[in-house]
Sequence to fold (126 residues):
Amino acid sequence: MSGARKTRKSVPISEAVTVNTREVNVAVEGLDPGAIAGSFAVHIVKDNRRIASRFFFQASDGADAAKPGALRQPVRFDFLLPIDVVADGKLTVEIEPAGSPEPAQRPELERMGHPTLSVYLMLESD
Fold:
């Protein structure tokens, strides 16, 4: 597969790169999964319409379940999207617990740590 270009957020300064203006990486970073009981989905929303989703599986009962107050590593969700899909609109994030009986039932943001939404232009190298 030689000759295939690699898409990355950063490269060593010894490499020559081009800026990919067709796609962006939309990232939700630093989310504490221990604040959410069981598995959940993270949705990127533009102007009240879901444009991308990722699912995070975690046990909700038994020995593998998160213990209250237990420290968990923050998680990151990356969405590589065409730039025209995210351009010229308001982006927001929705967290949806799996099996939630009501779509409006969302976890409290204050309990999830300090997650951030970031958008990165991507670099391409040989």
